[in-house]
Amino acid sequence: MTADAGDDTRTRILRAALDLFAEHGYQRTSLRQIAERLRLTKAAILYHFPAKEHLLSALVEPLLADLESLLDTAQAQPVEQARWTVLEGWVDVMLAHRRPLGMLFHDIALVGRGDTYHRLMEIAMRANDLIAGPDAGRRERVLATQAVAACSDPIVFFVDVSDEVLRADMLDGVRRLLTPATADAAGRSGASTADRRRPGRPRALGREQVETARRIIKSTTVVVERPAPTPTRGRTGG
Q1: How many other CB atoms are there within 10 angstroms of residue 227's CB atom?
Q2: CATH superfamily entry for domain 1-50
Q3: pTM here?
Q4: How far is CA 96 from CA 64, 102, 166, in A?
């Protein structure tokens, strides 16, 4: 967060608020605590931010604005290019705003306040649409939703991992997620798609397999002998 000479007090307030929200949580941080940390009066805080919710909106605004700008850029691109513009850009934006994102995660109820929740939902839906592509079916839309989560959630769970390492791991994970399972399995086994068995009738047995099968059948065949017929006695006169 950079500060202008004419906006130094406002920037200091935002920095202090973010620090205290991270330490104690949004709900347990008061405007008075923020003022005391900065050696200001509560009135000075209220001059810039009439309510604590305004602090929240100001802290989250750069994150939302960057995501909206990313989606606007991707919207004008071809489908495949747009998909990866969103995914790679989403990771970069999230990494650039790790602290506000962590604050939202730990105080998840905050997203239900004001316009923040509605903007987040709209952003997420636009991202899902761009990743899934036009005329996407249920499976494609589910995968798109999972991909957005894969580009977000690790950031708040792996806070000690560097941006560079985490970025590489996240993008590798989302590429695996969006790669068709059959192609991925073939890649791991070293076999091409043409080499894999296809559904339908099995291939014909070779000569050795036929002979082996005959020996197995012969060795396991049980011969059942029929009992000899019982002779019938003829009638005698008497």
Answers
A1: 5
A2: Homeodomain-like (1.10.10.60)
A3: 0.69
A4: 12, 12, 12
